[in-house]
Queue: 3 jobs
Job 1
Amino acid sequence: MTETTAAALDLEEAGAVLAAEAARFASFGWMRGTSGNLSLVLSRHPLRLAVTASGRDKGELTASDVVLTDGEGAAVGPGRPSAEAALHARVVRLTGAGAVVHVHTVASVVMGQRSPEGIPFEGLEMLKGLGHPTHEVSVTLPVIANSQDMGELGERLEAALEPGMPAVVVAGHGIYVWGADPREARHRAEVVEWLLELAAARG
């Protein structure tokens, strides 16, 4: 089997996984219309990612609605990945993540505008869902200013990374969350969104 054939098979499998994840997020109202994007690492050397295709309804994705990209987020082969593929690739390079979730939630936009310096959380049982052994911790969810330049946005994200918080809010936009695999990234995204909804409800 050639490397190209193996990559194609891996890409199709990854596409099926990402389609299922996207359908779940869309059912929550976190990926309305064509908003949001997901990625999954296929190889580390060289770095290759499967990224959801641009302009597709995230509640209706199929296994073929995914694009292979390189370590900079550029397409390798046919298709056009999300415009934010470069940021997914940068998150992977910085954190060693195996999957990245980007969703547009109301709570993330509200809290990004309300707390542009970051959103602190302390003493909450749900923090265990981010890998903390106990609720007796204090963590901050970083907030960064938005930009259409993925290089600039990546610089802001890199500068804002916080230990123990696998997520960043992009003000006026949404959240990026990552994990070792799609399942962990999904669980963490759900935890982060719960925290944001709690913060928004507190006013």
Note: The chain has five helices and nine strands.
Job 2
Amino acid sequence: MFRQMRIDIETVLDNDPAARSKFEVIFTYSGLHAIWAHRVAHKLYKRKWYTLSRIVSQVSRFFTGIEIHPGARIGSRLFIDHGMGVVIGETCEIGDNVVIYQGVTLGGTGKERGKRHPTIGNNVVIGSGSKVLGSFTVGDNVNIGSNAVVLRPVPSNSTVVGNPGRVVKRNGERVGDRLDHTQLPDPVIEMLRDMQRQIDDLKSELRAERALRRSAGNSELIPEGEPTL
């Protein structure tokens, strides 16, 4: 148990440049407190002491602002940064070396029974305000951008942005700095920019054709004015 607590403290120091000392981490990091409380609640849950485990999780929620259901399974080196508003559902499974920012929801989509929350792989970063909803798998080495809404499986080594979440791949490799979840591409904006470039190219071609016909004495075939598309 103490070995795992040391790993948890080192995880905070590795991921948060604002963490200055172990003493500060132990006494001031609500994400760390929520994880420790969850371990207690999860052990009670596995022994089928459901009510007592929920009491522990709700007390933790009151003090930390982070709600982790006692049934959720969490791997090693989870880092919850700030964490206010984070919600992790009962059947959620989280792998190793995962970073979760504030306002994230790992939840379900209805009143279905059984496995109804996502499975998060290893080395995943989930940006602020993101929602991952449903019983599917998010692969390893995935970045989920801030405020993304993910409703379908995500392959490993990819990036998800937007609402609904869209996968953006870059040669099958993780994009950029794994903690820089603000500098992620937006496929909708890229599509609009590409359309604007095509429109500009068509306008240029029309101007060139009009000039060519005017020089050939056929200017009456092309009306004057700016070509519009």
Note: The domain at 1-174 is CATH 2.160.10.10 (UDP N-Acetylglucosamine Acyltransferase; domain 1).
Job 3
Amino acid sequence: MVPLYDDERHDYLLANEKMHIIQSPTVFSFSLDAVLLAHFAYVPIKKGNILDLCTGNGVIPLLLSQRTNASIIGVEIQERIIDMAMRNVTLNELGEQISMVQGDLKEMQAEFGHSKFDVVTCNPPYFRTPEKTEHNKNEFLTIARHEVYCTLEDVVKACKLHVRPGGKVAMVHRPGRLVDIIALFRKYRLEPKRIQFVSPKQGRDANMLLIEGTRDGKADLTILPPLFIYHDDNTYTKEAEDIIYGRQ
């Protein structure tokens, strides 16, 4: 039996009652952005190597394992949260496919070398935090949501370092950082190939974006149709429901 600590709980991983995930409201719980990224990202089906940076409690590797037989490694800087991720791997008996590494994404070259992964995914901290007064009072949430230990440039640089030439990098972020993301992707030779904007409802501004780039790729960007999460009556759209409940 995999132990639970403090206010942790076992949840089903979406609608898949065969998979479970350990979460905590005060330490880490996954959100919709991770689910959308795991669905959006290209993955090799039968074999390959995938790296997930800022892995949190390992939700993206767990979700990707349902789409691929590739080897998956998650990296997380927070000791308390990587312990949760490791227990999630054990809980779902995925130790032969998924491994977790505690560490700073800026310092993983000694661990992984460079250009070793077919795909790199990342759900990074979204918010710049110039002043400590802007930090969340919960340190775990501050580190997960704000650029305390890594900036957007640190993330993009790490993605480029570890993805092979021709490999894919997929990221979820806020639309307000799109120009920064594209500029940094091109600075580090990750050519943007696909972008999808996500809105709560039709007629509402996008509050999330998904972007995928190819290392050393040629310029050719596709803007995918927008994804709407809710109808006006606050029920899920079919597209969102299919993703959230693993029907696609």
Note: The longest strand covers residues 163-173.
